[in-house]
Amino acid sequence: MATFELYRRSTIGMCLTETLDEMVSNGTLSPELAIQVLVQFDKSMTEALENQVKSKVTIKGHLHTYRFCDNVWTFILKDATFKNDEIQEAVNRVKIVACDSKLLSQ
Amino acid sequence: MASNNDSRVYKYVIDDVIRKVRDEFINYGAGEAVLSEIRSLWEMKMMQMQIGATSGNTEGSSSSSSAAPRLVNPVHDLNVPYEGPTDEENGMLFPPTPLQSPFHTQDDGSDVFMEFEMGNSSSEVHQQGNEYSSIPQHDAIDDEYDYLFQYPSVSAQDYTNIVVQTPAEHELRAPTPPAAVGTPRQTNNVSADDGDSNENNGGSNLDEEEEPTAQHLVLAQFVKVIRTKKTKKWKCTFKDGIMLLNNRDILFNEAMGEFDFYFCDSP
Question: Which segments carry the region annotation Disordered (chain B) (predicted)?
Fold first, then answer.
């Protein structure tokens, strides 16, 4: 099953990475097991976002930079707004990193 | 800070990960205690991040306050001699003298990592005093134009380097851009309403200016990316994403984006 390591850069992913890093550093955990945990995190996070989350968001903004490389789109937006039923956020600059959803279905 | 629903999703993810790696831990002889420690530390860090996110910092400093807890080891000032581990392997890998470039303290948050991105990547490892010898491999785009994301630890990247040697190597991982990326290319994934799907119009002016700092981040999967030539609008469909905006986490299942892009056609 294909997995994206993308979500490791999220808050929950970074917390897990730091946790594993600490435990590997002090010898509590082997690097191999740490990798297994990260890979499982990739799967669990992907599955949770697909099945546990129902929110829809609209994004508007000015595109400052775009890049497509290795099936990953990167957009840098300026003066962007994000809206859904519950929240509305405005940011000066935001980076969007998006992997190809078709790769997961392969 | 995450909403109640998002917190529920995070708890689900933590439970799911711990449950599904339990067998591996037993097979490797690591034991339930290690698993419990992972869970405890992970949850504690999540709570710390959320507390930092709700501390009422401004947008400019919020990223620093939220990034500060992410640092695992104290940061060393580059202006003083480094007295790291005496491990012979480390001694061979790291330069004997610290970098001369100024080093921002952790109060600057993400700026710290941008400095390291431009410098010697091994010095990042060097400064954190950890034992990892591999050059960090960043998951997403991390070329010379991208100073935005640094990781306080190289461990995840080192794990990535080691991935090919583990039993999980047979699993396909979706490729992420390598550290050094050349000129961006347009592919068939871009289609336009009026048929300029593969027009090589030079793309953005990546080669001419540096990418600005972005404190906010969206991680998602794209379903469709369309650019209309006449209106110069990009219309994108994303799914299954995590947004880090204004120091809060927002999850979404689907997102529709409309972006304006003004490109001056050069002769």
Answer: 171-211
Can you read off the two tokens belonging to residue A69?
A: 């490389």
CA-CA distance, B75 to B124, in Å (whole number)?
A: 10
Q: b vs e for B6-15, b when ≥16 Cβ sit within 10 Å of the residue's Cβ? A: beebbebbbe
Distance, in angstroms, between B230 CA and closest chain A CA?
16
Coil, strand or helix: which one is B260? strand
Mean pLDDT of B31-54: 87
* Dist CA B108 CA B48 (whole Å): 18
Q: Is the pLDDT of residue B101 over 70?
A: no
pLDDT band at residue B119 using 50, 70 and 90 as cut-offs: very low
Q: Which residue has the tokens 């695992």?
A: B72
Buried b (16+ CB within 10 A) or exposed e, B141-170: bbbebbbbbbbbbbbbbbbbbebeebebee
CB–CB of B43/B11 below 8 Å?
Answer: no
ipTM of the complex: 0.94
Distance from CA of A20 to the nearest CA of B (A): 7
Taking a C-beta distance cutoff of 8 angstroms, is the pair B130, B153 a contact? yes
- B30 band by pLDDT with thresholds 50, 70 and 90: confident
Q: What is the pLDDT of residues A67-106, one digit of tens each?
A: 999 999 999 999 999 998 888 999 999 999 999 999 876 6
Separation between Cα atoms, residue A106 and residue B238, nearest integer Å = 18
In this structure, are residues B18 and B34 in contact, taking their beta carbons and an 8 Å threshold?
Answer: no
Tell me which chain A residues have a C-beta less than 8 angstroms from the C-beta of B241.
49, 57, 98
Token pair 């980076």 is found at A95
Q: How far away is chain A from the Cα of B107, in angstroms, using its nearest Cα?
A: 18
Interface contact flag, A65 B186, Cβ < 8 Å: no
Tell me which chain A residue has its CA closest to the CA of residue B223: A101
Predicted confidence band of residue A10 (pLDDT cuts 50, 70, 90):
very high
